[in-house]
Automatic annotation (TrEMBL):
EC number(s) per entry: 2.3.1.8
Lineage: Bacteria, Pseudomonadati, Pseudomonadota, Alphaproteobacteria, Rhodobacterales
Similarity field: Belongs to the phosphate acetyltransferase and butyryltransferase family.
Full protein name: Phosphate acetyltransferase
Top-tier EC class: transferase
Length: 341
């Protein structure tokens, strides 16, 4: 089934018997609290707001919310009954790095680490942070605490791009990597594309058609940067022969049917791509922002892929609605993991 529904609407349209729990590590931020309230009101998930109890309660009161009967709960790492359990688990996890038990106990009192431990220890389905914390802190904590998926070669990121109603040839797409891996090698590009294909199935409910992007289309230019994309495409085809992938190709070849027919006749991807793999972070970051600002597309992300359990990053300029959408993304990722996708 092909859909252009954004995550909140897709989750509402996806019946499930599960009751997901999402831990928000910045539970006293007004945007986070407002986004959490919207998520529980829409019955997307139950939400744990992590932070000092008095601060979280004050923010809840300021935005007109309450934990009473709302699907919200507050966890204060300084006094939580789970802190001892988490300190022991974190010590066992990181003692090979020289951490001692006192340092482990101090670490899990950090809301970011505590939220990730909720996920690792099975008390939450996934976690979202980054409204205040930096991407590097969010990512480092996720990798250290939650860890990489057993079949993942690396952790990367993507943006979900949703077209305005007025867009010609508009379709929902996945752009990767636009937020994390600065200059991937050919093998890393192939790994990013592999992960993005699964993310496309999970979050866009579409079979991926992957365009390996470049400034060259099918040999129109020669350069080491083009060679990297050609090598990545060949590696991906060898490793994942069932994937629909083509390249190297320019964006217009990947996106516009008439250009695709002219520049890459016979390609199953040209003009129809819904997964755009950018050759480096410069291209990806610029590309998604151009699509958003000039094309009018809605951009949701960066979404992380390659972790053992869902953990996602917010922009520090996020809105409450961004928080709600990322909660929905995190739930959908957990469903994709649990059903074997």
């Amino acid at each position: 089934m092909t859909t252009t529904l954004p995550p909140v609407d897709l989750l509402k349209a996806t019946p499930s018997n599960d009751q997901p729990v999402i831990a928000l590590s910045e539970g006293s931020d007004p945007r986070v609290v407002a986004g959490a309230l919207a998520a529980v009101e829409a019955q997307l998930a139950n939400v744990i707001l992590v932070g000092p109890t008095a601060e979280v309660e004050a923010t809840l009161e300021a935005v007109g919310g309450s934990v009473v009967g709302s699907g919200l709960s507050i966890h204060d790492p300084a006094v939580s009954e789970l802190t001892d359990e988490f300190a022991t688990a974190f010590y066992e996890l990181r003692k090979h790095k020289g951490i001692d038990q006192d340092a482990a106990r101090k670490a899990v009192k950090s809301p970011l680490v505590y939220a990730a431990m909720l996920v690792r220890c099975g008390h939450a389905t996934g976690t979202v942070g980054g409204a205040v914390a930096t991407t590097s802190d969010v990512l480092r904590t996720a990798i250290q605490v939650i860890g990489m998926a057993p079949d993942a070669a690396m952790v990367s990121s993507f943006f979900l791009m949703y077209p305005p109603e007025s867009a010609e040839n508009g379709r929902a797409m996945l752009y990767s990597d636009c937020g994390l891996v600065i200059d991937p090698s050919a093998q890393e590009l192939a790994a990013i594309a592999t992960a993005s294909a699964q993310s496309c199935r999970t979050l866009l409910r579409s079979e991926p058609k992957i365009a390996m992007l470049s400034f060259s289309t099918m040999g129109s230019a020669r350069h080491a940067a083009v060679d990297k994309v050609i090598t990545a495409t060949a590696a991906l085809r060898a490793e994942q022969p069932d994937l629909c992938v083509d390249g190297e190709m320019q964006f217009d070849t990947a996106f516009v049917p008439s250009v695709g027919e002219n520049k890459a006749p016979g390609s199953q991807v040209a003009g129809q791509a819904n997964v755009m793999i950018f050759p480096n972070l410069d291209a990806g970051n610029i590309g998604y922002k151009l699509t958003q600002r000039l094309g009018g597309y809605a951009a949701i992300g960066p979404v992380l892929q390659g972790l053992a359990k869902p953990a996602n990053d917010l922009s520090r300029g996020c809105s409450a609605s961004d928080v709600t959408q990322m909660i929905a993304v995190t739930v959908l990722q957990s469903q994709g993991t649990s059903d074997g996708n």
